[in-house]
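We now fix the convention by which a protein and its fold are recorded. Here is one such record, which you should read through line by line:

>
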Amino acid sequence: MPTLFSVLMRVFLCAVLVLPMGYGVAAETASQSAQANGESDVNVDAELVQLQKQLDSIKQQVSGVNNDSKFGDLNDQTQQLISKADELSAIVTPLRSQMQSQLNVLGPEPDSGSALNETNEVTHKRNSLNQKKANLDSQLEQIQALHASAANLSTQIVNLRRNALKTQLALDSGSLFGARFWSPIVNPQPEDVSRLSSFSEQVASAFNGAWSADWRWGSAIFLLVALALVTLGGKYLEKYLAWLGIHKLPEGRLRRSFLATATVMSTVLTIGIAANLVDYTFTRHDIASDRVASFMDTLVRLTVFCSMIAGLGRAFLSNQRPSWRLPAISNPVAKAMTPFPVIAALIILIFGIIEQVTITMGTTVAVTIVVNGLATLFLALTTGMVALRSNQIRRQMVATGEQPEARSTLSGIIHLAVLLTTFAVLVSLVIGYISLARFLIYELVWIAIVFSCLYLFSTLVSDTCESLFSPNNLSGQRIKSSLNLDDRHLSQATALLSAAGKVFLILMAAVALLNGTFGTTTPLELMQKALDIWGGKGLENLRIVPARLVDALIFLAIALYAMRSSRRWLENDFLPKTTLDRGIRASMVTMFSNVGYIIIILLTLATLGIQWNKLAWIVSALSVGIGFGLQEIVKNFISGVILLTERPVKVGDLVNISGVEGDIRRINVRATEIQLSDLSTVIVPNSQFISQNVRNITMGNALGVATLALSFPLDTDPDEARTILLDSYTEHEGILTSPAPSVTFSQLSANGMVLSVTGYVNSPRLVASVKSDLLFEIIKRLRAASIPLAVPQRMVLENAQNTSTVVPPLLGDDVPRT
């Protein structure tokens, strides 16, 4: 790691040292280029009219330009116009000075009452010179106004061109190894040198003003406090928060997530306050210009973002307390990753300062490209080294027999995405697409920050809710006693509040990814954007553009993830903790999924920019399709909705439809799944449950009937048999006492008598097992009482040889015969 850091610092120091040297040489050249051109026979008025026409034409063209090359041409034309204005000023200024000298020789016009009288020639000469001088003054004012307007236009073109670099990703701005890329450092433009000198003077003036006699002691105190916050404040604040989490928070995972969050917040808080103190130190007096104040404000914001990167790295690695580490990272890998968050934060901070200097100065776009290219290069090397170094450490652990941490598929995908992005950035720098490379690397940094914060805060929310409503903690016990709640209600509150917090964080992350950018987006801006979206602001102007396709895909992925997570939470966490039966829970989950997917589809179309009043042709096409080929699908869909709302049958019911008897396992949009007794599944269209007769055996908590019909011989005592049957039913634990069991004399014939005994069970599903148990018990008791059952009659035929033939009962006989 020292080798990587030393290489990065050497390259950066070389760039910083070469840049002022180039600007110094250019400054000497620029100082020798201003010379007087003397009197000329140029028609100044005509030239002014021509230059004004050119300036108006450039302004009109700027408003419709959207590519870098055209911006460059217009800026060159503007610079040429400024040069011509300077030439005209060089012509007019000496002539005006000459006229003023001649007027000084003639002197002022004498008073009317003076004794001295001028000749007519002198008076005429003075009037002529005054007229010429007034004409030259007017021309000089026009030249100065033209020059100021052209300079302002050039600055606006440069700003527009710089902003266009962020959106024109396919712009070829020169390879990193090409001479054109390094030309702003080797041969800087004179206007860049002049602007740098002007801005340096403003910064120096603000610095000197902060150390003037009136402000000196306050500046010293503020800077000492800022230094103390950076060096000692964060350290002691983190120690205090760690002590607070250990001694004041209940045992559990909340301590771990609280410490990680406290590490990030303490780092951002101390460095942010220190940066604001430095800003206030040098901008609190009137000497600081608006440009310096704007530069310092942006610097403070950039410092806060960089401190967040460093804080997140320290929180997730947690080398001081490895057992409290949130992500699953082994100790050797965590120790190897320690310097990288700080290196990345310093690279972003240093080059962010240089970039902000160029923006504040209004330098040419070539300087901005150099700064962007170098910053992108160092960041890409840092992110690539993170992925490669972690892999190297894991291979070394495997070689030495140690077991690295278990990596999920998601972590592997993230690791591969970082490597591919780094490779794409380096290739883009080599072939000259600096804007694309910068966009990719800063989007990677921004996505990493957003998802890191999402992981950190979602863990904190989940652990906080779990600890707050835990019946084992003091807070949960107080809530339980004060509100007279059960443990089931506390678990429901935990699941509900943690899910609401996670959904809110996911929505904020989506807003940050779709609308935020690194270094400029603050939490307050994210909240304002979320409120605007909630209120519908901006949705009325949606149009389908290529950029919105990416937004729609990102939104669709996040919405599907949130939908599935919500369904799993509703099905596995929340509803099982309620008193609803299983069928109602399944119906609610299915209805929630159907409505949710419909809302996701509509919102995805809205993100694409499709207006609902433009969907009339789609509705017409669907109507035709339904009329010809989608009748059954729509009918089954409507029937499924009716089944879920009216609930004539529900999941878990035992039904019989068209000879198919089984348990309903799932009610889908199109069909219903019925599981038979042999565990096979029959899929029945939903429309059949609406249009056909359906027997719901278990509807309304129906009871099962266990009836047995037994045949006894005619010589059997029916009262004794009746008592045995009733005792067997009454003593069985599955038979209900109400309605009470009963015995009926159902049949009497020459072959015997038939007694039927009937009892009720809790569910029709229990009838078979209860009847089997009763038969075992009744047979046992009848044999103990020597009461036989009627046996089939047999016919025995005897012949002379004393052989016999047994004739079986005839088919259709109720009682077998002999």
